[in-house]
Design a protein that fits this description.
Number of strands: 11
Structural class: alpha/beta
Shape: globular
Radius of gyration: 20 Å
Length: 332
């Protein structure tokens, strides 16, 4: 069930000339900007994944999905592309901030909700639930229940597709002392300002969390993305060339608010660190990405056992929510 969009989700605040969603800042939900510059960066990042994944939007063996959910749609790039790829599929995308592109496919519905709260989607509803780059949004103590929610709203036989980064840049040699002091410092401060509220290492645990939630046929892989086009391998060089402008923007956009508010750095210190880290990112550096897929068993007995185990927790979590009516999602 949906409601008209509450204006509190549209309200923004400005920090150091960047625009942030007030609701996300006040609730510790998200510390990255929501302005046009960040939307452009998210579009660049989607392009990086398109190159890295060779144009594949959906990894599980799904032939003709009828309902797909995208969690944390950001710039809506993935949601738009998948809606165009499956024109007969009903695609729903949810984000905490109500960004609305100029044009949308007719089969795509954008909604607003805080995914740190228990899902309000009906059970056994989707063929695929896609979740990408959510480690900066999902609370650290929410992750396992978040994946249980994904399990609950998938139909038996449906799939999840999870993609998360690990913000610990590394050198091509794998040696920490080859990484560069400024990229090392940026990674350290980023992790310190995210923890314990967020889990920058969530990608590492996706596979084990998916199995614990009840998923089967779980596959989890770690991929490395070059930060720039330094590689002699043609494909890695193509990924790196696509990734370079994304990384250069990311080093500022993901740092401006948390580094100044939670690490006691001035904005000039943040920008200097980001600039020096950019120079090091043009050398042989890598970023880790974790990809995980899993299938909900077709067995109803297996499904109900996990669903019943989660039901008690779902009730207690809902009882503690500050705004009970917020479990109705908002529509643009």
């Amino acid at each position: 069930e949906t409601l008209p969009l509450d204006e509190e989700y549209r309200e923004t605040v400005v920090h150091h000339h960047r625009e942030y969603q007030k609701y996300a800042i006040d609730n510790g939900a998200y510390f990255a900007p929501v302005d046009e510059d960040e939307i452009e960066r998210l579009q660049l990042m989607h392009g990086v994944f398109s190159v890295a994944f060779r144009g594949r939007l959906v990894f599980p063996p799904i032939q003709s999905p009828t309902r797909i959910l995208d969690c944390g749609y950001g710039s809506a790039s993935w949601a738009v592309d998948v809606a165009e790829q499956y024109p007969d599929c009903e695609v729903t995308a949810v984000d905490i901030y109500p960004y609305l592109p100029d044009e949308l496919p007719a089969n795509l519905d954008l909604q607003v909700d805080d995914l740190n709260r228990p899902t309000s989607f009906p059970r056994e509803h989707f063929d695929l639930v896609h979740s990408r780059m959510m480690s900066g949004a999902i609370h650290a103590n929410r992750w396992q229940n978040y994946i249980r929610d994904v399990f609950r709203i998938l139909r038996p036989g449906g799939w999840c597709q999870l993609v998360e980064p690990y913000f610990n840049f590394q050198s091509d040699s794998g040696r920490l002392d080859d990484l560069g002091q400024h990229l090392t410092r940026w990674s350290q401060v980023y992790r310190e300002t995210q923890e314990p509220y967020k889990n920058p290492r969530a990608g590492v645990d996706l596979g084990s969390w998916a199995r614990a939630a009840g998923f089967v046929d779980v596959e989890s892989r770690m991929l490395t993305l070059p930060l720039s086009g330094w590689s002699e391998d043609p494909r890695d060089r193509e990924v790196g060339n696509a990734n370079r402008p994304n990384i250069h923007r990311l080093l500022s956009s993901l740092a401006a608010y948390p580094f100044t508010q939670h690490a006691s750095m001035t904005i000039d210190e943040v920008e200097l660190l980001a600039a020096r880290a950019r120079n090091e990112a043009d050398d042989p550096r890598l970023k880790k990405i974790y990809v995980c897929i899993g299938r909900k068993p077709a067995s109803s007995r297996h499904h109900h056992r996990h669903a019943d185990a989660h039901k008690g927790h779902h009730a207690s979590s809902s009882k503690s929510d500050r705004h009970s009516d917020s479990r109705k999602r908002a529509r643009h």
